[in-house]
Amino acid sequence: MKLNITNISNDLEQRLRDSVPTRAYNLTGRGIMWGLIGAVLVYSLFPLVWMAITSLQPEVHLFTRPPEVVPHKWTLEHYFDLWDSNREFFFYYRNSVIVSVLATTTTIILGTLAAYSISRFEYRGKEFLDNSILLVYMFPAIVLVVPLGILMNDYGLTNTWYGLALVYLTFALPFSIWVLREFFNGIPYSLEEAAMIDGASRMQAFVYVVLPNALPGIIATAIFTWSLAWNDFLYASVIMSQNNMQTLPVGLNQMLNSANPPWGQFMAANTLVTIPVLVLYILVQDYLVEGFGAGGVKG
């Protein structure tokens, strides 16, 4: 077979000529995409970075014009002042940590068991329960604040950590059941059967086979519940009226609404509130993506 070298060369030359615009188009598209991602990152992170920088500037430099993006002098005086003159802030911190831990732990335990029962067992009312899980999300939070406040007051649960944690369960538990149910549906029942054939009990199969496979969903729901309890202002301001029982959002709001707000301390307090949540999100970000993605796709 005789090859026509001239035709092959012309064909390659034409393909190379056609690929140049395509490559330029791809490079332009990538440049626009990365530019948009960079703009969104700057827009999202700038308030946090500015808050941290402001907390490390001396008080006299906070209102200079133009603002100092990179301070000439760094200081930790606002953090020490916060410790010396605003001890209430650390009570708020303690209350937020305890309420968030209570709400998250309870939601994970109850949500995991409820979602597993919906996924694996047949019983009366299961279909109604399954279809009405997210019904509470149809109502704005402000609609439920008065009935829940009256209920907590009637049962003597106002100004208590577990009372506020119970309020957060009304929102966090349905979402947790919905996400975890989809995870359990995606785990083959044959894995549990194989474990039970090998001698494991039903509970052992659940703990050692099912739970490890549902770990991304459990972590995603735990982070959702923690964020809900950590950031809530509305219900905390209603349920916790005593000053020593208030949580961080309510306490920071009081600091901001004082006659002469200590802006440096306010920024230092906000930085201390943000750091634990930021670190937590960074540590479990892979589980979050997998958990919320799987819950949305499988539903």
In short:
Keywords: Cell membrane, Membrane, Transmembrane, Transmembrane helix, Transport. By secondary structure, the chain is mostly helical. It is 76% helix and 0% strand.
Summing up helix and strand content along with how strands pair, one would put the structural category as: mainly alpha
Share of helix, binned: over 70%
CATH homologous superfamily annotation of the domain at 87-294: MetI-like
CATH topology descriptor of the domain at 87-294: MetI-like fold
Low-pLDDT sequence parts: none
Strand content: under 5%
Number of helices: 13
Arithmetic mean of pLDDT: 83
Q: What is the name of the CATH architecture of the domain at 87-294?
A: Orthogonal Bundle
General form: flat
Number of strands: 0
Query: What string, H for helix and E for strand, traces the elements in order?
Result: HHHHHHHHHHHHH
Report the sheet with the most strands, covering strand number, pairing sense and barrel closure. none
CATH class of the domain at 87-294: Mainly Alpha
Distance between the termini: 59 Å
Provide the gyration radius in Å.
27 Å
